[in-house]
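Give me the fold.
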Amino acid sequence: MSEPTVTMIEMDEGNYNDLLRCLLNLKEICNDVDIRQGVIRQRSNDLTAVFEIDVQPILNDSNLPIANLKKKLDLLRTFAGQAVSIKIVEADTESESYYVISDPQSSIKINFPSLDFLDNKYMTEEERDNIFDLDEGNLMLQTNLSGVLTERINVITTNFNTPAIRVKFEGDEASITAATQSKDQEAKFVNGIDTNVNFDGKYFSNLSVIPFSIEHSEDLEFKMYKDQNQNISLNKIKTQLGPAEINIFSRSTIVEDDED
């Protein structure tokens, strides 16, 4: 049996709080988090989105699997506002691997979970690219959404009790909207987005609101790509949270709008 690999990471207050903010973004949408070589890449619980968060600026290329994220976050947040040390011990078997988070006063030791039993499993770059073949030649639209707009989307879709926003296409323009199920209330978030495709008629695509509801420190760069073989849109959101780059991928169906 080989000697365990021991990794020590020293974090100041800011870096540790940035790590917590990244994990808090996943608290309600992922049961588990599996950080591999400093990267989170996994599906949401409802399978509507793939989250990719590069935390290498904080954790370097460390491995850090976290089962039952909600409960573990309660533990991790007890060190919020402090400089911390994270000691990661990786043995030949998961049952002997663990990590310890400590500051000068206290420490918590957490054993590695069995990766086979995580609900949200790590996805390789190859697996991601097989699902989302993004070709800039197939780009339908691109726009930036500010923090003011995403906060508005989050509050209004929550109030409307709807899990989706709707991107509407007509001619060479698109808009982003949301409505209640009964359609007695509707919000228009953005109008007049230029598209690279001219739509002959009215079409729409419903996207999960989850990617638009995350905390972020820079504008969301929102892109939609047309699948060449079917009426499917491949969607990508890119943003930043502190030093961590976030990319979120999803798929949605493009449907002809025959309601009017």
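The chain has a mean pLDDT of 95.
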